[in-house]
Amino acid sequence: MHPGGSSWIIDSGCTNHMTGEKKMFTSYVKNKDSQDSIIFGDGNQGKVKGLGKIAISNEHSISNVFLVESLGYNLLSVSQLCNMGYNCLFTNVDVSVFRRSDGSLAFNGVLDDKLYLVDFAKEEAGLDACLIAKTSMGWLWHRRLAHVGMKNLHKLLKGEHVIGLTNLQFEKDRPCAACQAGKQVGGVHHNKNVMTTSRPLELLHMDIFGPVAYLSIGGSKYGLVIVDDFSRFTWVFFLQDKSETQGTLKRFLRRAQNEFELKVKKIRSDNGSEFKNLQVEEFLEEEGIKHEFSAPYTPQQNGVVERKNMTLIDMARTMLGEFKTPERFWSEAVNTACHAINRVYLHRLLKKTSYELLTGNKPNVSYFRVFGSKCYILVKKGRNSKFAPKAVEGFLLGYDSNTKAYRVFNKSSGLVEVSSDIVFDETNGSLREQVVDLDDVDEEDVPTAAMRNMAIGDVRPQEQLEQDQPSSSTMVHPPTQDDEQVHQEEACDQGGAQDDHVMEEEAQPAPPTQVRATIQRDHPVDQILGDISKGVTTRSRLANFCEHYSFVSSIEPFRVEEALLDPDWVLAMQEELNNFKRNEVWTLVPRPKQNVVGTKWVFRNKQDEHGVVTRNKARLVAKGYAQVAGLDFEETFAPVARLESIRILLAYAAHHSFRLFQMDVKSAFLNGPIKEEVYVEQPPGFEDERYPDHVCKLSKALYGLKQAPRAWYECLRDFLIANAFKVGKADPTLFTKTCDGDLFACQIYVDDIIFGSTNQKSCEEFSRVMTQKFEMSMMGELSYFLGFQVRQLKDGTFISQTKYTQDLIKRFGMKDAKPAKTPMGTDGHTDLNKGGKSVDQKAYRSMIGSLLYLCASRPDIMLSVCMCARFQSDPKECHLVAVKRILRYLVATPCFGIWYPKGSTFDLIGYSDSDYAGCKVDRKSTSGTCQFLGRSLVSWSSKKQTSVALSTAEAEYVAAGQCCVQLLWMRQTLRDFGYNLSKVPLLCDNESAIRIAENPVEHSRTKHIDIRHHFLRDHQQKGDIEVFHVSTENQLADIFTKPLDEKTFCRLRSELNVLDSRNLD
């Protein structure tokens, strides 16, 4: 026998099919383990080089064949054949291989020179498709002909419609991987033609729609829709955030089971985190309710409620559009649509309305009126004069769920009211207006009469007829003589016209005795639950409390292994990965040969201004320190808003009496496309099981990448410019837009956005535009930003860091320390104190760093913190005592902050001062500056000068130069707000420094001053800055240069508008 592709030896001692000819392989995979080898019968070994497939004819091949080094024959393994379901029969002349399943012959061979040989080139071999991998020519032609379907190819072959297809069989005996990847579609979901439930509440379908671009009048963005499977009765609940779903669902299920006296057996929802979480599952487990889920990305399996969502939104859109009702009333429209479809749509199989199937009664629709139609609301409260109108105009918003009344919008008051005394104009005053004579219509056509048959109850609606008794839970009694007297007195107060009306009523027959419902308002103290001093706990407050404490984890894990054991953090991580998928951040690819950046999870608890944990945030970040410059990144700089810019915007809003709002871009960096080719590792704990060695190729920026902030800023900048915004010339994070004389301004701080306008509609339009482009988290009015607590009051705006201050005091163990009235004593100048006792450098630096951040809203501690910061390299005990003095001052003033009053001027003015040779270490002077917009302090500094001044005048001149720099920047920034300022006043208390700025002649005593400080003189001559003298007593910058006595310090602190927030209440 000679080695070849068709002649093989059947060997009972061979462990695998193997050969030594590499040229025979049609497909081949190299063996990665160089230690694998085969032992021959003579004791020698041959290395296994690889594994592949060998073609033995035009249509057949043998799979799983080893390529063995130095092997001179082709061997078929008997054991491998047996594992494939065959039996081998050896005789003295031949060998036969039979199928074990049916005993039929698969192929046979002959005995030749003591070896059993099979030659697959001979027809006698009888090749079997199950033994060897059959490469069907039909499948080859399927691929050649652009993957046309097998059925179509079979028709072409059978009808002989083409030439060239002969002796083929087109049979789809296996799936084509390429066709599945390119053509596969979802499964067919047929409509149900049978009832699968037998009673109400047996199965509830639920889903959430939203977020809606416009906030509803109640501040909602989402709608929770619940549909009963048996009756198709629908309930809609409106939510401000998806996190409210859990509490709303629990309350609904408890009320539904109580009011219907039926148990809910099952609920069905999608896989959203608002439904699929530990808290909901625990509640359902306690109630004995089974939770069913639709398959991921298969909304058809939850089609009952999905179609109901579409119906509700389509009907609401139609009703809003008929009379051009503002879109902020979308929730009222959806609620009215839900009220209608429960009473007018017939069940497809049971042929009854949802209302009848649920309650057993036919619905009454006589009280229905056109949504958005004009109406006239009777004024029942006291009118200003006898000739004031008795009715005001409004429009219909729907039907109240718990009273027999309409919900209407009062145009005069701008409020939604509930009333039954209404007259409708359903033509909205068109030329086709119909005049209706109430004497010619039935009683049921009158709105107030028809309302008697309105069904009330937001969970279980019930229609009460006139003879029905009222609920037993309401105190009722017939009117007494005192009541009638009070009623008559109230009527008399309305004026003479009302008196005539009363007399006419008295002349008519007495009406039947009416039933009046009264509500007890005063309760005995022993019947009140809880602490009276804490006020009333409303449902919304309780829901917010439960949201913070019951549905989030309060522990921040350090490692991903710990987080994977906590369901709340697993949910947070899954939400982060869902954002990646939604934004198409990466694609999974084989590992390249270039640099791959690692990834890690960062876990943080988001808190509000009161320190309450509101959200678990899991962030997947890249290990940017592993990036290679020029390969993984190029440009990295991204502008960030300065705190002075934010304070300027706050002062501008206070001056123009408009409110600022804030919004947050969810996973902002994931929106910024990157130009470089960057690869990162798969998320720890969430590696793909099929491709564990693959990596992720980024198409969008990832947190932690050096170029991520720049990519996000460019993405947001280009979007805003495309929407007619202008970039600030001095501050690239400020974007402005002017429309009809109204200025809209927004300040960007990475993914946090502050915005406001003198026109409220501009803010609504901006919110809508941003929501359409990015996934936003609307936070409403600006209240908590970058650690600042912002209170926008009637008389001005107050910013503080009260929560941060209290946390700071607590962290450094100073909560019970004795309060101090000033942050530093009058002898507060300290030196190196080289002989003093050293203290913990790390703890000292931590204190200084924390206090420096607090200086952003506490200018009163700026000087003392900066002086203590000079000794961070080798702090001594005396320096630590000075820092603790600052903390003791904070204990006495934890609620202090900056007040921006309304109504003041908006003139830019600066103060500069210096403390000549104040530093005991190197005798350098300290510069102090502050800048105001009217009475609003927006910028300040306290800084040691870089060179030793030879005179007081020089020190003051250098300080004035530093103040000039800040004033010029603010002057340029204010141009973006529409203010073109010139001759900005700079107040200095040193006459010599003022003369140096005014006199261009160099004197012998001033020529040594560095030339860079003389630009003050240049801008003085240009008219940009004008230096004025101010008395030392009125020099507000004095507080930033040297320690002051208590009286002077408190006076200057008050002049800076640093006030106690407790005095503003």
Automatic annotation (TrEMBL):
Recorded superkingdom: Eukaryota
A GO BP annotation: DNA integration
Protein's UniProt keywords contain Protease: yes
Gene Ontology MF terms in the entry: aspartic-type endopeptidase activity; metal ion binding; nucleic acid binding
Pfam family membership, one: RVT_2
UniProt name for this protein: Opie1 putative pol protein
UniProt xrefs under SUPFAM superfamilies: DNA/RNA polymerases, Ribonuclease H-like
UniProt keyword annotations, A-Z: Aspartyl protease, Hydrolase, Metal-binding, Protease
Occurrences of domain Integrase catalytic (ranges): 196-362
Region (Disordered): 454-516
Species of the source: Zea diploperennis (Diploperennial teosinte)
